[in-house]
Amino acid sequence: MEERSGFSVQDTTYLDLINTFAREMRYYETDSLYRYALKALKFSKQANYLKGESISYMSLGDYYSDRGVTDTALLYYNKSLELVNTMNSSDLKLSLLNNISGEYEYRGDHAKALNGYLIALEIALEDEALLQQSIINENIANLYADQKYYDESLEYYKKVRKLNDSLGNEIAQAETMSNLASLYADMKNLEYAMFNVNRSIDIFEKYRIMDWLAFAYETKGKVYLKKYNYNWALYWYRQSEVIHENLDDDRARIDLYNGMAETYIGLENDSLATLYAEDAFRISKSINFAEGIKKCSKTLYEIYRRQQDYATALAYHELFQELSDTLSRNENKQSLSLLKTKTEYERQKQLLIQDNEKALASQKRFIYVGAGLLLLSLLIIYLVYRSKKLQQRLTRELEAKQEILERRKSELQMDNETKVKLFSVIGHDLRGPVGALKELLQIFKDGEISIHELASYMPKLRSDVDHIFFTLNNLLSWGYSQLNGAVTRPTSVLLEGIVTENIKLLNEIAENKSIKIISEIPANTQVWSDPHQVDIVLRNLISNALKFTPENGMVTLQAEEKEAYWIISIRDTGVGMDRLTLQKIFKEENNHSTYGTANEKGTGLGLTLCKEMILKNGGEIWVDSLLRKGSTFYFTLPKAAGSYSKAV
């Protein structure tokens, strides 16, 4: 463009190109980001091009944000926002609100960050901006993850994954999967972490998204580090390091170098561990990143303590302790502030909704008054005729109200029975394992058993915790459906993927009993159902099959295609059931649980929950069984419209 005749630096197309180039250089050559952002700002002001000015200010904010100069970054972001507010650019405004909230998060003000994200999310919902909704929800999820509110974080990630599926954006899906992998690694859910990071790496390598690929490689290294597989951890950290040679992203290097230092400690290579830890420490100080300084101080303390340089080790330990105390106090305050901010935001939102409803109700009252006056006039004219009609109408209303009262009475009785049943299960199936765990920890705390003796109880504790988790999952799903009326949201679902994920999830239980799980579900088994509810049904039925199948047994999953539906079966070679048990197994009053072949315990809610969810999805469920031969559970689900033809 510059070489064309008649070229002008005030050409808006030229200014957009400069701004785009500046932003593309953010993680590759930040000096170019700064230089071209200033150039675009200068020429945009000359051309009175507000959009160009706004994007230039936002790029300058990014430049100072990456250097840890948060005050200057916020100054430029707010300058950009002032200009955007004079224009009609929803996408740009959402990006700025997202960046400003992120900057508050970097400086540790989580309350302001969350409030900003929620405001941006409200605007994105009004504008139906699906991509921005995905980005903001993911940032909220990461905010909760930093505060170690993992359940809340996963709830927001569920929303993100649904939005990404709607968008069909493969790169956005990969970015979410890499962040999810890091979250699962922090939660010690290493199988899920590895599954997500491997899928994200495939996509980043396909599209050559190098900054995200470096992060994905680093996350895979972190997963192996938490598995204590130091050689593979080092391999993936080095892959990330090679990419970082062509990147300019100091904040991302901190976790990478510190992770490599921890890996070299595990490999007993203190010299390289020191080198990487000190590099990470230096970068953290240069951008004033307290969390990074704390992590690196802990790593350097470990290194110098191993080298018996106790004076240096003590200095780093004191720094680590000081920052830990400060961040801990701040995080406690921020955590409370975080929850209060969200609660206050939701409360104010609810008040606005109520005010709006009151205004609508007031308008309706005026309409009703006018209609009443008109009705009164008609009643005067047609008094006799209308009297009779009125009497009939009142009679019908009384009958209808009587029916409503009877129905509400019945619903209240059912609610009370549900609550009694719910607390019964909590008291019977959760209090025991939790109490046993509490007693064991108290014995260990009192010094009555050693750490080695405590370690011998780990398999039993793991089994108890798995049972508690599975019980809670069923309990919450069932309780929600009973007390709040869970909504079924059917969509087109490929059953094979849900089956595969559940087999992976339950594979460890199967391996412990030497049971083979075989899936013969065709790849084209496409049903019209709620995927979350189908997932719960499959998990319960496979878990039951494993529970009642002795060692060296087999569990087989099959699907048979009919004209309008699929029949799915889960067959086991277990203990089977007698005729009396078969007659009452799906009845609501039958919530009794029996022990499995390895003394596994259930809640008694699994099959009740399965029946409810299959019926809500338009299917049926039944069972065939022979004592000491095994059982086969069948259920049907409607076929999805336009499903693939059956494979030959």
Brief summary of the model shown:
The chain is 73% helix and 7% strand.
Which tags fit this structure?
7 strands, five-stranded mixed sheet, two-stranded antiparallel sheet, alpha+beta, 648 residues, disordered C terminus
Structure characterization notes:
It is a single chain. With 648 residues, the chain is α+β, with helices and mostly antiparallel strands. Helix content is 73%, strand content 7%. It is built from 23 helices and 7 strands. The chain has helices at residues 12-24, 30-47, 50-66, 70-84, 90-106, 110-127, 130-146, 150-167, 170-186, 190-207, 210-226, 230-244, 250-266, 270-286, 290-306, 310-381, 383-445, 451-456, 458-483, 495-512, 531-547, 579-584, 606-616; strands spanning 491-494, 516-519, 526-529, 554-561, 565-572, 621-626, 630-638. The strands form 2 sheets. It has a 5-stranded mixed beta sheet with strand order 2-4-5-7-6. Strands 1-3 form a two-stranded antiparallel ribbon. Helix 7 (130-146) runs antiparallel to helix 8 and helix 10 (190-207) packs antiparallel against helix 11. The model is unreliable at 643-648 (pLDDT under 50).
